[in-house]
Amino acid sequence: MIKYHGTPFGGSKSEAAEALIGRHAFVSYAASHHLDVCLDVCQSIAIDNGAFSAWKSGKVIDWEDYYTWVEKYIRHPRLDFVIIPDEIEGDEEANYKLIAGWSKRFSGHDYHKGVPVWHMHESNTKLSYLAQSHQRVAIGSSAEFSQVGSPQWHERMRWVMRILCDKNGQPMTKIHMLRGLDPDVFTKYPFHSADSTNAARNCNIKDRWIGTYPPPSNSWRARVIMARIEAFNSPERFDCLPDWLK
């Protein structure tokens, strides 16, 4: 499973480069000032549309500006995929329109770099449609399923896997889990990739790093966090059978 570490990191660009060299980065439109570093040193990057940050802060994103920005990087050899605009608490009609807006703006190989978001409060029918029509689908935790890893979140995810996986429990499309780099989460589901800002958020909180050999800098602290995450992997399949059929 590919682990995309969210940016930006605290400290200088050189410290970010030291932490991310040879890794995979998830760069948000809402905070893109480490993008040049990521393009220089990472194996690959993915671009997030910034919808989660906007939702939390109450801001509104001009998607035309987002498209113009994405066009600068859409063909960069290290860009893996781009998250298509979405409204986290929006209805399905609004989000279908945003997906259609991507197809109007991009075509061919550029089009296929766009990844739609299915929100966990949306219908199973929409999830099935996105899985059949796109090479990769991102899953966003929303509404009553907004807390990743909660009991209701896992219950919903079990139904998601039954839709996305074949009879052998293997996904029929690539699955990217947004905010999904908790090993207690991604080791249970056959995700192709996931992201989180865990390392970026915690590497500069020095009070959490006490002991005989505390890491000496932000970059070292970030590397410790990322190494712990990268020590785990997602499973190759999911047991899709309900308990009552086992």
Describe this structure in words.
The protein has helices at 13-20, 35-41, 51-57, 63-71, 92-105, 108-112, 124-133, 151-164, 183-186, 198-202, 218-230; strands at 2-6, 24-28, 44-48, 79-83, 114-115, 117-119, 136-140, 174-177, 193-196. The protein is of the alpha/beta class and 246 residues long. The chain has a 9-stranded parallel beta sheet. Helix 1 (13-20) packs parallel to helix 2 and helix 1 packs parallel to helix 11 (218-230). 38% of the residues are buried.
Radius of gyration, in angstroms, nearest whole number: 18 Å
Give the termini separation: 28 Å
The low-confidence runs, each spanning 5 or more residues with pLDDT under 50, are: none
CATH C-level category: Alpha Beta
Order of helices and strands: EHEHEHHEHHEEHEHEHEHH
CATH A-level architecture: Alpha-Beta Barrel
Q: Report strand %.
A: 15-25%
Within the largest sheet, what's the order of strands?
5-4-3-2-1-9-8-7-6
Q: What structural class should be given to the helix and strand makeup?
A: alpha/beta
